[in-house]
Each structure stands twice: as C-alpha cells, then as structure tokens.
Amino acid sequence: MEARSGSAPAGGGWQGNGAPRASRSARSLLFTVVGEYLRDPGATLWTAGAVAALGRLGVEERAARQALTRTARDGWITAERHGRRTLWRLTSRAADHFRESAESVYRARRHPTDWDGTWTVLVTSVPESRRELRHRLRTRLRWAGFGPLGQGVWISPRVGSEKAARQVLDELGLTASAVSVVGRIGGLGSEFEVVSRAWDLGGLARDYAAFAAEFSDRRERDGREPAVVFAEQTRMVHRWREFALRDPVLPADLLPARWPGHDARDLFFRRHDADHHVAAAWLGALS
C-alpha cells in the first residue's frame, strides 16, 4: 500500500528499501495494527499498548518504539502528549487512506460482483531514471486492481478500476501521459492468456491453500485468552492483506475450477467476524 503522506512499510507487498529486516517487520506489523484497529473515528493507542501489542506478535520493545517513531515521521500516525505518556492516533489523511483500502481488503472480497466481460486497459510510462516513482506507480496500480502486461500496459477486469487509476495518476502527476481503454477482448488472444500474463495464478493458488491450512478454524479455539485472539487475528489479517496486492478479486469466469481462494476467503471472514471485536477490545484496554 503506498502512502500519500510518506513511504509505506514492508509487508503485504510494502517493501522498505535499505532498512534492516527486523525494522521492516516491526513497521509492517505496526502498519497492520493501526490499519485494522485505529481506522475507526476516535480510536487511539498508548505507546505502552502498542509495544505490548507488537510484543504479542514477536516484536522486541526497541524495534516497536522505532517503528512508532518512523511511522509518525512518515505521516501515518500523530502523537498526543499526556504528561510523560504518549497517545497515538491516525492522521486524517492516513484514516482516509485506510478506509479506502478496506474496500480492497474486505468489502470487495466478501461480496465480489458479477463480471460482464469488460476490461479496463491503462497505458502509462515513467522514465527508467525515476525508479522511485515507477515503484510507487506499480504498487498503487496493483492496489487499484491492475495487473501488468509489460511495456507500461496494465489491465483490470473491473470497469471501476478506471476511477481508481485516475486517482493514482493524479496524485503522482502522471495523468497527462496516460491513456485508458474500456472494452472486451477481441479476436486475437484470449482472456485466460491475459490473466496468466498479468497475475501469477499458480503462486496465488499455493498461497491461498497455505493460508487456509495455517489459519484453519478446525483447530480448538474455545477458551482462548483475548491476548491470544488478538495475536492470531492480527497475524491472519497481516497475511490476508498481502493478497490485495496480488489478486484483484478476479472473476470466477477467469479462474480454474476448485479455486482455493474461495475457501481461503470464506475462512478469513468467518474468523474475522468471530474474533475482531475480541481482538479490538483487548487492544483498546491496553494503557
């Protein structure tokens, strides 16, 4: 996920450059925590609570505090001093960003719409010399549901992706050099060839199956402490967010039979619906 107000941390497709692996992991997990639990209006988190929450996810205190500092510096969270203590909340721009990204991570995946065979094709380019801008464009377009066909050509099976692409291009100052086309595949090539070029279905299938195996709700889950629920829930969300960069909720018409993503989706929402309030309540009670 690309930040509007700073560089997004690693995880879920967010990759920092040059930072130690432990630091990237801490920031990535913090990013998931604030995106999942602080995007509601008025939600806050004390420093000690953030450290304790990240500790439950295997992050050491020093790395957790560094993650808070860097995430604030990049404009995602803001500090509010209360004596010697610090209360954190999302910045207004970050809150807007997370609410919008929830569409990709949750709503569009819970209730995928039918597909009418229409594609959105985007043609844009960034000079090789502007590598940072190229990286930001690639990341943002993937979040918007596009897959690359090469040579600056991107494609999405969702007509609504054009609006999202325009927003990305506007924010990056690239609108003047882009062209979009909406229509159907013609007589040359096939839809399945397009999908196999733009998205790694084999890798997605393996990772969806691994996700379902790791977070299977067949395991004994009754009687778990709220802290354990928080850790399991947050790790699951952290993993699930990765799919938003790699799978634009491809229509069933374009997927192989017995697609493992369907089972992974059903599992995710069953567990998320059952455990989110417990995890959020545990985190909110930390001080």
Structural account:
The protein is globular and about 65 Å long. The protein is α+β, with helices and mostly antiparallel strands and 287 residues long. The longest helix is centred in the last third of the chain and has 25 residues, at 260-284. α9 crosses α10 (260-284). Helices cover 53% and strands 11% of the residues. β2 and β3 (85-90) form a beta hairpin. The strands form two sheets. It has a four-stranded antiparallel sheet. A three-stranded antiparallel sheet has the order 1-3-2. Residues 1-7 and 10-21 have low confidence and may be disordered. Residues 113-189 form the Transcriptional repressor PaaX-like central Cas2-like domain. Residues 1-21 are annotated as: Disordered. Residues 25-93 form the Transcriptional repressor PaaX-like N-terminal domain. It comes from Pseudonocardia oceani.
Question: Top keywords for this entry?
Answer:
287 residues; alpha+beta; four-stranded antiparallel sheet; 53% helix; disordered N terminus
